[in-house]
Amino acid sequence: MDGILRCSRYSFGPNRLHYCGPDASAELQTEIEAANPNPHLAAILREFKTLFPYLKLIAHANNIVDPFDSRVVEAYWLGNDLLERVERRYLYDFLITDLEIKRKTNTRELGWLENKIRAGALPHHSFHVLNLWRQTSDKAESQQPENLSECCVNAGKIVSINGPGITVKAEMPIYLAGKFKLSEAQEKKLTRKLESEYDIEQLRPGQLISFHWGVPCEVVSEEQAANLRKYTLQNIEFANQTL
Fold it and tell me: Are 72 and 58 in contact (CB under 8 A)?
C-alpha cells in the first residue's frame, strides 16, 4: 500500500477524535476511501505535529528521502528494523529540538527520558504514547492511563464479521495495580469507519489486522504483529520504570 494512504489509515482514528493533527477527519476519510495518495493528503499529514517529525527522524536516520515511504510508516506505527538504526543522540536531539520536550517536562522527567534513551528506547509510536503523551499533552484523556491502550496500535486475529462490525481477539496494553502490562488475549469489537477497495473491505475470519482507536487499519503479517508486540512490550517496560 502507498505510504501516504497507509499512514492516513493509522492517523484517521485519533484525528476524528480531535487528539492529533488538524481538524481534517472528513477530508482524510474522503481521500482514503478514494485510495488517492495526492499532495493534499500528504499536506494534511504534515500538520500532525508529533507524527510527521517522527517520520522525518526515521527516514533521515535510514537515508530515505521520503518520510512517507511505506517502510518508514511501518517502522513508526508497527515497528521494523529501521528503528534500530536511529542513533540515541539523534533521538535525544530530536525530542529536545523538534518536540521541545524540555519545555514540556520537568527536570526529573527529563532525566527519566535520558535514562530510557541510554537503555535503548526507539522512536516507535508506543514509546511516545506510553512514555511521553501524558507529560506533553494538554488533553485530559492523556492523564488517564486506561486510555493509553486505545492510543497504542494493537493487532488482533479476526474472530467474526457482522456487516461493519468486526470482532478480534487481541492482547492489549492495560493499566493494572499501578503498572502497564499486556492483557491476555481478549475479544474486542471494532467498527469499520472507512470504506475502501483495499483489504479492509475484504476481511475474513482468521486474518490478523492492526487497529488504532477502534479503527481497523490494515491486514498485517505474523511478522508485523510480532514486531508490534515486541516494541510495545519494550515500551511498557520503560513506562513502568517511572510510573
Answer: yes
